[in-house]
């Protein structure tokens, strides 16, 4: 077996999961299935992804338990540092040297699009469970890629539709200046303007911004009914905290976070986040299955009681779906595994009724939540109240409009 030691990109020590006795099928390369978790371990996405995603992948491998065929699984991980060139170099090393069979997670759309290009038509599968760019099922569509959880089309269109139904006609955007933010703003703007609303302005900020004062003052002065935060992670947290200092919501404007997770709300606290509107694909406290998963996750090493984000749940679900496809086909080659994954239609324990389409888009219900007031929260991480459920067939861009010609 080739070594998987710590390289110059910080690849984590492999977690060898000899899930059952016996050997894997001969069609499985090196007699082991290696899944590489690639994400932001030390930057603005470390709470919503980071080592929590690694633990989620490990949980999937443990629950897979060899797939009834003694298939051995190893989980490795690396930090892409939110840099496309770093992420691409890691993926190439995993592909050419380390014998990794699938890449999972990858928050940051610029990095995800770069990985998508590297792995196209290779033997590796890309489980883009945290990459939000809609281009993955549009102009950048690849036969190697499955996109779980969320994307810019769903985030932009579905959130805009839900808010406009509640009277939010006039908008102002505070947008991170890279692929993710631009994609969300473009999708939301398209929906808003087509349905009689107006976009009164937009401010662009760099990734990792600490001072949002000038952007928020422009949004406040616009008098827009809705201020849309087209960013994620630490950027969203900083923007919401500073908006609270300016009294923006008290002044009658509604704040909408397009990509916010329960970990972000925990970090800023209910006093600051209360009243915030957000769209999620997963919430730990939705039902018995999500709660059971969340409690197991919270007890994992290093989690210290933290509940999983939607992205971390997506790592678990996509990794387990991939491993089940490996067991079904006896192969870890993307040309065999991905078509098998696309045959799935049924209930996923964490995401509900789920279909994996021919363009690689996983469709499932989405949920509009409002963050509770402090007095409404009854126990740790009891943060959301459900406002609306968006059915799977309405939450994502229709296949016919996806621009993806991969239909086999």
- Report the order of strands and helices: EEHEHEHEEHEHEHEHEHHEHHHEEEEEH
Tell me the overall shape.
globular
- Give me the oligomer status: single chain
Taking the alpha carbons of the first and last residues, their distance comes to 34 Å
Measured by DSSP, the beta-strand proportion falls in 15-25%
Contiguous low-pLDDT stretches (5 residues minimum) are 1-26
Radius of gyration: 20 Å
Structure description:
This protein has 408 residues and is of the alpha/beta class. The protein contains 13 helices and 16 strands. The strands form 3 sheets. The protein has a 7-stranded mixed β-sheet with strand order 8-7-9-10-11-15-16, sandwiched between helices. The protein has a 6-stranded mixed β-sheet with strand order 1-3-2-4-5-6, sandwiched between helices. Strand 4, helix 3 and strand 5 form a beta-alpha-beta unit. This is ABC transporter substrate-binding protein.
């Amino acid at each position: 077996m080739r070594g998987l030691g710590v390289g110059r990109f910080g690849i984590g020590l492999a977690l060898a999961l000899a899930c059952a006795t016996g050997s894997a099928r001969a069609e499985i390369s090196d007699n082991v299935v290696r899944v590489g978790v690639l994400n932001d371990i030390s930057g603005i996405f470390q709470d919503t992804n980071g080592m929590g995603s690694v633990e989620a992948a490990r949980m999937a491998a443990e629950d897979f338990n060899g797939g009834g065929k003694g298939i051995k699984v190893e989980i490795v991980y690396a930090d892409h540092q939110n840099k496309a060139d770093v992420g691409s170099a890691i993926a190439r090393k995993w592909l050419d040297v380390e014998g990794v069979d699938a890449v999972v997670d990858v928050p940051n759309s610029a990095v995800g699009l770069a990985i998508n290009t590297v792995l196209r038509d290779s033997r590796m599968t890309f489980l883009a469970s945290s990459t939000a760019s809609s281009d993955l099922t549009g102009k950048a569509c690849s036969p190697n890629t499955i996109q779980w959880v969320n994307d810019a089309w769903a985030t932009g269109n579905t959130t805009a539709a839900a808010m406009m139904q509640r009277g939010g006609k006039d908008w102002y955007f505070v947008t991170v200046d890279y692929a993710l933010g631009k994609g969300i703003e473009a999708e939301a703007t398209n929906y808003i303007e087509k349905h009689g609303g107006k976009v009164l302005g937009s401010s662009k900020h760099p990734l990792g911004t600490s001072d949002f004062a000038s952007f928020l003052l422009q949004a406040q002065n616009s008098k827009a009914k809705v201020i849309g935060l087209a960013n994620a992670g630490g950027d969203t947290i900083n923007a919401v905290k500073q908006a609270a200092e300016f009294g923006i919501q008290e002044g009658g404007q509604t704040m909408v976070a397009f990509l916010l997770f329960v970990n972000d709300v925990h970090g800023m606290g209910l006093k600051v986040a209360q009243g915030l509107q957000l769209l999620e694909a997963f919430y730990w406290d939705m039902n018995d299955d999500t709660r059971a998963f969340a409690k197991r996750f919270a007890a994992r090493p290093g989690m210290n009681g933290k509940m999983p984000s939607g992205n971390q749940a997506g790592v678990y679900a996509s990794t387990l779906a991939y491993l089940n496809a490996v067991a079904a086909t006896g192969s870890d080659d993307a040309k065999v595994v991905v078509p098998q994954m696309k045959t799935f239609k049924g209930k996923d324990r964490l995401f509900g009724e789920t279909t994996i389409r021919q363009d690689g888009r996983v469709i499932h219900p989405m949920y509009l939540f409002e963050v509770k007031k402090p007095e409404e929260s009854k126990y740790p991480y009891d943060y959301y109240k459900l406002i609306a459920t968006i059915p799977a067939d309405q939450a994502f861009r229709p296949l016919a409009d996806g621009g993806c010609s991969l239909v086999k």
